[in-house]
Amino acid sequence: MVWPLADGVICEEDRALEATGLILKHIIAENLAEKPESDKLYAAIGVPAQASIKNKKAIIEATKDFIDKIIIVSEPFSVAYSIDRFDECMIVDIGGGTTDLCRMHGSIPDEEDQLTLKFAGNFLDNELTKAIMENFPEVQLTPKIIGAIKEKYGYVSEVSDPVKVTLTKRGIPAEYDITEILRECCLKLTNPISKAIQDLVGSFDPDFQEKLRNNIIIAGGGSRLKGIDIAIEKSLHEYGGGDATCVRDAEHCGSVGALKMCMEMPEEYWEKI
């Protein structure tokens, strides 16, 4: 088994590079089975907000044999493109390997407008696994079980219905109350994100800080954590308050934005790449 991606980018090993290329070739073959050979293939590929030049070169290397032209875009910028929000807002994209934040202010974001955190979905999975095993040492867990618990019950609100899950111990199922365990683990994810939002708001042009903190858009799988929008709003209380909303299509919003970018890119621009 090869895990080709880590922290939102291709792992630094040849097998990961090869695996990434094979996966992408398979996806293209499945979805464009009737593509004439003479047709060129263009793609927009998303990366974490602070991906390095080396990370981006790895993507080019993995795709050079079967994609004719690519543009590499910041993932939160893809979200913004999808929903047509380019001015006076902040995108918070909580994915699996990274959480990416980006201030949008009417132009292509600069480096100081963006942040990448390694507090994301995989981090939460690891924290939840450790916490459950510490409290119930003999239960049997798998990444699939943990992922299902997180996606169904994950929350950061102060009040929640009891979260009771059925787990097995030596093959025997029993019910376990993980209400507080789950909340504490989710807060380990959301607290650093809230701090990063505070930093991006606090370092922005004072004339536009109010609009920025009142237009926070949360995307990615992590946006489905119950109460995450309210938790972020509360974290901005001493800054004058804030308003946060979650996108409707949490998982595909960034991909839709990348596709939209490809379709709207003028032909002459592609020819220059």
Tell me what you see in this structure.
- The protein is 44% helix and 21% strand.
- It has helices at 14-31, 53-63, 75-83, 121-135, 143-153, 179-202, 209-213, 228-235, 253-264, 267-272, and strands spanning 5-6, 9-10, 42-47, 69-74, 87-94, 99-105, 114-117, 139-140, 164-169, 172-177, 216-219, 244-246.
- The two termini are 35 Å apart.
- The strands form four sheets. A five-stranded mixed β-sheet has the order 7-6-5-11-12, with helices on both faces. Strands 8-9-10 form a three-stranded antiparallel β-sheet, with no helix packed on it.
- With 273 residues, it is an alpha/beta fold.
Pick out its properties.
single chain, 273 residues, alpha/beta, five-stranded mixed β-sheet, nucleotide-binding, ATP-binding, cytoplasm, ATPase_NBD, MreB_MamK-like
